[in-house]
């Protein structure tokens, strides 16, 4: 019918079932985007992983990812470099120096300097 829906939620378990494509946003920017099953199965960004780990269904969790801690920074005065670095357990010095752009890694796109290392 030529219809498109934009469904917005923090619950990735629901998003997965109603979406053909998923765009994960943090502080107003897309940090991971791709086909729903690709993003779900190959989640690369630490924020996407944290959202999955927040799902009460333990079967969906990966053992190697920690739950998200800390507060969301002000979008008016975001951290330098990667906006997620103040909450990211994988953050390194480089994360404060430059903002990661969306780039293709595997099946979809992610904005993280270390996506390949985090996913392996
Ligand atoms: S760029 Fe650095 S701070 Fe940002 S998500 Fe990747 S590892 Fe974490």
From TrEMBL:
<dbReference type="GO" id="GO:0015833">
    <property type="term" value="P:peptide transport"/>
</dbReference>
<dbReference type="GO" id="GO:0005524">
    <property type="term" value="F:ATP binding"/>
</dbReference>
<dbReference type="InterPro" id="IPR050319">
    <property type="entry name" value="ABC_transp_ATP-bind"/>
</dbReference>
<keyword id="KW-0547">Nucleotide-binding</keyword>
<protein>
    <recommendedName>
        <fullName>Oligopeptide/dipeptide ABC transporter C-terminal domain-containing protein</fullName>
    </recommendedName>
</protein>
<comment type="similarity">
    <text>Belongs to the ABC transporter superfamily.</text>
</comment>
<dbReference type="GO" id="GO:0005886">
    <property type="term" value="C:plasma membrane"/>
</dbReference>
<dbReference type="InterPro" id="IPR027417">
    <property type="entry name" value="P-loop_NTPase"/>
</dbReference>
<feature type="domain" description="Oligopeptide/dipeptide ABC transporter C-terminal">
    <location>
        <begin position="31"/>
        <end position="95"/>
    </location>
</feature>
<dbReference type="InterPro" id="IPR013563">
    <property type="entry name" value="Oligopep_ABC_C"/>
</dbReference>
<keyword id="KW-0813">Transport</keyword>
<keyword id="KW-0067">ATP-binding</keyword>
<dbReference type="Pfam" id="PF08352">
    <property type="entry name" value="oligo_HPY"/>
</dbReference>
């Amino acid at each position: 019918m030529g219809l498109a829906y934009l469904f917005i939620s923090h619950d990735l378990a629901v998003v997965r079932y109603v979406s053909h494509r998923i765009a994960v946003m943090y502080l107003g920017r897309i940090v991971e985007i791709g086909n729903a099953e690709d993003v779900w199965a190959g989640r690369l960004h630490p924020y996407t992983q944290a959202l999955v780990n927040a799902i009460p269904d333990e079967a969906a969790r990966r053992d190697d990812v920690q739950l998200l801690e800390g507060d969301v920074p002000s979008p008016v005065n975001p951290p330098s470099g990667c906006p997620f670095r103040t909450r990211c357990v994988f953050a390194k010095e480089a994360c404060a120096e430059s903002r990661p752009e969306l780039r293709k890694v595997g099946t979809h796109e992610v904005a993280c300097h270390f996506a390949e290392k985090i996913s392996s």
